[in-house]
Amino acid sequence: MAVIDAEIEGRITDADPAGAGAMLTVVGVSVLVPDGTEIRTPTKLLTVAELLDPTPFPGRAEDGFIGGTAIVEGTFDTATGLLTATSVEVEPAENLLLGALTAFAPATINLVPVVLLPEDEPRLPADPLVNEFGFPVVMNDKVLDQPAAADGYYDGAIFRAYHMEVAATADLVSNDPQIVITRAQFQERDPADERGDSFDIRGAVTMMHAPPGVTLQLIEVFRLDGGVATSLGQTEAERDPEFPRFARWRMDGQTAPTFDPVLGLSPARVRATNLSDDANLASAESETDIA
């Protein structure tokens, strides 16, 4: 008899209440999801009730996430035959559509119709339409016959997307100074008082506010712990030579060793702020991916 670390990925064939939690069947494995387990889709944290919600997703006939995909981490007990989850990721399917935008009203990629999921879909709301730098954009003929990508699921006729990107030539929703965080990864390293946690944080800024001769923007990144912001340092965004309306930035490194019970752990959120002239202190926040 033993309890072993376990991870599975595959099709969900059953989902039922189990006390305050849930019981899933994933690739034939019985998975107990206790109340309080982190459950998420690519765009939202879920409650147990949302995980078990039988309402079909747009274009699908199956109840809720039945027939969808789950990635489960946890422990398997050889005595009980149960995998007890510590984290669960679910979505109706793991489909990717990458290629050319072949129409824009309505949108098609590689001639396949693409529709964004409703923003008010309670389990998998769509992100705003963005360009390849991550900024919200307007769909028009400026992106026709150019690269595009969509993440979501194919219902047999329509690709239902929770995330869609088009070319950087698209018109922005707003011409105000903006900044985005496209990646925020942390890796816990122990013991915290001897070495800090490693991180890799990336993003982009708009450059329309900057004079043509200005190629750099100063970015400061903060970790957010409750209501407290602590600087992780500064980096520079460099104007993109092909798309000069934008600049990319990246900061990687590690936090300082500390005995502090909060700063010794990786943060759940980070914030990036553009400190440059005329950027109006444009800021963005993001959840972190902690390994």
Shape: flat
How many H/I helices? Answer: 1
Number of strands: 23
SSE ordering? EEEEEHEEEEEEEEEEEEEEEEEE
Q: Quaternary status of these chains?
A: single chain
Weakly predicted, low-confidence segments: none
User: What is the CA-atom radius of gyration, in angstroms?
Assistant: 22 Å
Helical residue percent?
A: under 10%
Kindly name the structural category.
mainly beta
Mean pLDDT: 96
Strand order of the largest sheet: 22-21-18-19-20-17-16-23
Terminal CA distance: 29 Å
Instruction: Estimate what percentage of residues fall within beta strands.
Output: over 45%
What characterizes the major β-sheet? Answer: 8 strands, mixed
Helices and strands in order:
Elements: E1 3-18, E2 21-26, E3 29-33, E4 38-41, E5 44-46, H1 48-52, E6 69-77, E7 82-91, E8 95-104, E9 107-109, E10 112-116, E11 130-131, E12 137-138, E13 147-154, E14 159-166, E15 171-172, E16 179-187, E17 198-206, E18 216-225, E19 228-239, E20 246-254, E21 269-274, E22 283-287, E23 289-290
Spell out the key features of this protein.
mainly beta; 2% helix; eight-stranded mixed β-sheet; 291 residues; five-stranded mixed barrel; single chain; flat
Brief summary:
The protein has 291 residues and is mainly beta.
Word description of this protein:
With 291 residues, this protein is mainly beta. Helix content is 2%, strand content 53%. The protein has one helix at 48-52; strands spanning 3-18, 21-26, 29-33, 38-41, 44-46, 69-77, 82-91, 95-104, 107-109, 112-116, 130-131, 137-138, 147-154, 159-166, 171-172, 179-187, 198-206, 216-225, 228-239, 246-254, 269-274, 283-287, 289-290. The chain has an 8-stranded mixed beta sheet, with no helix packed on it. Strand 1 and strand 2 (21-26) form a beta hairpin. The protein is flat.
